[in-house]
Each structure stands twice: as C-alpha cells, then as structure tokens.
Design goal:
CATH architecture of the largest domain: 3-Layer(aba) Sandwich
CATH superfamily of the largest domain: Periplasmic binding protein-like II
Shape: globular
Number of strands: 13
Radius of gyration: 20 Å
Strand content: 25-35%
Number of domains: 2
Distance between the termini: 38 Å
CATH class of the largest domain: Alpha Beta
Helix content: 25-40%
C-alpha cells in the first residue's frame, strides 16, 4: 500500500471512529445552561453545540443532571463531555480538557436580616455553609479546613436552605445569585456579599472522560480553539444569562 493510501486510510478510520462515538454532553442547571421549550439551551450550551458541530461530531446528546451525577458520569463513562467544570489541580489528571468557556468568581453570601461577624475566610469557619456535592466550592472549602458544610444535590436546594435559615452562608457567583432569587421569588436586595473566595475563583471548562478516543478530544479542542480565536465564544457568552433558569426533571435531554 502506498504512503498516500495509508494516510487516506488512517484519516478515514479516524473519521469513522469519531462518527461512531456518541457524545453525552452533561452539566447542571445554571444561568448558562437550562431547559426552555423542552430544549436544553443557554449561552454555554450554545458554545458546546457549536464546537461539536464545527468538529464534525454531530452524534451527541445534551442532558442536565444534579452536579454530582454529571460529575460521576464524566469520571466513569467513555464519551461523556462535562461542561462548566472548574479546572483544579486535583482534577487535572482526571479528565481530558477541551477548552475554557468562561471565568467565574465566587462570593460568600448571607441574608441581610441575619448579620454575621465575618472579616476573613478563617472567621467564616464558625458558620454553616451550604454547598453542592462534588462541586469545586465544596472541595475548596474542605481543603481549607471547613467542617460545617451542609451538602445538597442542586444549587436551588442550597439556596432554599439559606432562605429557611438552615445554613448561614452560601458561595455563589453574581449571576447564580440573581438566577436563584428569580427562581425563589426572593428580592436579591435581601442578600449581602460578605467575602470573595479568590482562590476558588477559576475558569469553567468542557472536559472529556479519560477513556474518550484521543481523536474526539483533539477535534473538539481544535474546533473550540478556532471559535475562541475568532471571538465567537466571547460574543456568545457576553449575552445576558437567563435569570429564569428552569430546574428540569433529572436527565432532561435533547437529541442531536
């Protein structure tokens, strides 16, 4: 077989493998990922879909789960693409990273009606803090010696515990706070930001399970890098995030 024939064969085999690989794109409900009109949508969802389409990876599904389930799937199942996942040192070798979608900054919030004496991260250890299971905020606070963490499956549950007085503090982004206030019909003027978690603030990425074929990961990385270089990722994410992100039934999905 000639060299050119071999190259064509390798290319065709790589393309066939990619097309045969059904990608499960998973995340949680956020202001950037939510269900509207029976479809998983949002600015981050748009970035992921456009990336996969540009990569020629058209056989995929989009699903919203509680974060811990989405995270567990990405750790254990080949072909799972988790997105809006924080890239940390502890997670670095657990996934194949495909691109940074956005940067976020977390803040500790309290109810204005419940004054707390907090000036430093250390002083916050005296209070109960609501977190999501397997979320980067839970992992970060644990690494800093926080023991009074109240764990929930979803961010809405965490926020409701703040409103009911079951926890004293919750770590949120500004957009998350606005969205959760909208969902619970709570006036955001009743919230107060008390501390910024600078070390926990990071980039949010899309990342594949380690067993995903390298060709799939590479094509995704290349397509995303081009979209980012062209300014399309920034333009999409600059759109106003939804303040009405709806909580879907577990496993809400749209097939592509």
């Amino acid at each position: 077989m000639s060299r050119s024939a071999v190259c064509i064969w390798v290319l065709c085999m790589g393309t066939a493998l990619c097309q045969a690989q059904t990608i499960q794109a998973v995340t949680e409900t956020t202001p950037y990922t939510y269900v509207e009109g029976g479809k998983v949508t949002g600015s981050a969802t748009e970035v992921v879909e456009l990336t996969l389409q540009r990569a020629g990876l058209t056989d995929y599904t989009l699903r919203l789960y509680p974060w811990a389930r989405a995270y567990d799937m990405a750790l254990k199942e080949p072909g799972v693409l988790i997105f809006l996942i924080a890239r940390t040192a502890a997670r670095e070798n657990q996934f194949r990273w495909a691109g940074e979608i956005m940067k976020i900054q977390y803040h500790l919030y309290r109810l204005k009606s419940r004054p707390l004496d907090i000036g430093t991260l250390e002083s916050a250890k005296a209070y109960t803090i609501g977190v999501m299971r397997d979320d980067v905020r839970q992992q970060y606070l644990r690494s800093k010696g926080f023991e009074r963490l109240v764990v929930s499956a979803q961010s809405l549950d965490v926020f409701k515990k703040l409103l009911s007085g079951q926890v004293d503090l919750v770590p949120l982004t500004t957009d998350d706070a606005a969205s959760l206030c909208q969902q619970t019909q709570f006036d955001c003027k009743g919230l107060e930001r008390v501390l910024t978690l600078d070390e926990a603030s990071t980039g949010l990425y899309m990342a594949y399970n380690l067993q995903t074929p390298p060709e799939v990961v590479l094509r995704t990385q290349q397509a995303f890098d081009k979209l980012k270089a062209d300014g399309q990722v920034q333009r999409i994410m600059a759109g106003t995030p939804s303040a009405e992100a709806k909580t879907p039934a577990s496993g809400e999905m749209v097939k592509r």
